[in-house]
Amino acid sequence: MSPTIEEIRAESVAGRMIAQAMNAGGFDQTVYDKAQICLLDYFSCALEARDLPWAKQAASLATKQSSGAALIGREGFASPHDAGFANGVAGHGLVREDMHTGAIAHLGVVIWPAVLAVAAREKISGQDLLDAAITGYEVGARLGRAIMTTELARLFRPTGLIGAAASSVAISRLYGLTADQALSAFALAINASGGLNQWPHTGGSEMYFHPGFAVRNGISCTDLARAGAVASHTILEGEAGFFKAYARQSFDGEIDLFPDGQVEIMTVFNKQVPACNFAQTPCQAAILANAKTSGRQVTGIHIEASEAAVRYPGCDAKDGFNYALQAKMSILFGVAAAIARNEITEENYSRLEDAEIHRLIEASTLVENPEYTSAFPARQGATVTLTLEDGETVSASLEDVVAADAGEIRSRFSKIAINTLGAERTNAIIATIDNLRNEPLAERLDSLSALPEHSNLAKEITR
User: Fold this and answer.
1) Which CATH topology does 5-267 take?
2) What are the two backbone dihedrals, phi and then psi, of residue 303, each rounded to the nearest 5 degrees?
3) pLDDT tens digits along 305-331
4) Looking at the domain covering 277-398, what would its CATH class be?
């Protein structure tokens, strides 16, 4: 007996991966803890970026409704598509979002706005939302690991390439789609992949919008699949599929999810520094080296990092800092500013004309360290060596980036959320996230993130 079309589709690379994705769950508590802290950090970033130009621009496109999905930190509600777009952009607005190094991608800003927007429309439990999000992270991470290289990342934005596909899988789970419907949603989302890396060369702001496009496309593609649209099951390995189109090579492997119990969200780190992933460790090492100068003037800076860091677009920039984003991408600017100000804060990247920062940049070199290249992406090491006015050198090395811990994430969320939403709502969000596995309706969390007077559940903050 010949196999059915459904059986044929299920035996594709994407079909086998989707089957795993739709059945995943029952994770260890440590995995849920990680997901919950990533969710809290996402809210923190979105709230803190609320008044930045790109966040306002994205929110301005939303058609306001009396109910629906929340626009984080803003008045009113919108459709899941509009809210997902606006909140994805806001979550990316600080450049402090969570990072998956192996995929070179920011997964939280394409997963959380998608599942929260859908939760406002569907009756979804907190447990189901977490399981869907963890699976979305897994798909994005495994797909990114399989396709991204240093050379490909110089052309295409990893978050843009894998974001819609990852979010579509999370949404498919929340919709309760069949594996075949979810496969079509995934394939449609691959067709909606995009995002070029020209922006670091010009200072354009398109980077901020990549997650928004991914979220909106992920929701639309999954809606189409639920409505009956059918898409190519060989979207990954096909002759004109994902790998042939972007990597320019065939793919004969597997995208295996949760192998041997490994969960990719556990390898995600939360940034301390509001800047490019590759600038994190060099800036942290610069602060350590600067502590050894005893007040002597720095006359030279030598920075060692991985090939991926040195070659990522914008990371080696020494001039042309017309916009803060260009400064946030530049390892040289970040290190110079950290030394000039002896701290790493958002303020560092607004000092585009600072004479001392530019003096230090001119005295800087950035080179690849083969040991750091070999260790990447499992570790992101860096060394910063300073030459001082008396000729002495001091240096500091870090074998890996220092991530923000749960205490720091909770602290910075509370600080911005209290100023925006008020103490009562801030505490309610924290409590809801901490108890999300027992929350019968995840819509409550989405609603709490709107300005208080416009929340669907304003009268239910304390129950």
Assistant:
1) 2-methylcitrate dehydratase PrpD (1.10.4100)
2) -115, 130
3) 999 999 999 999 999 999 999 999 999
4) alpha beta
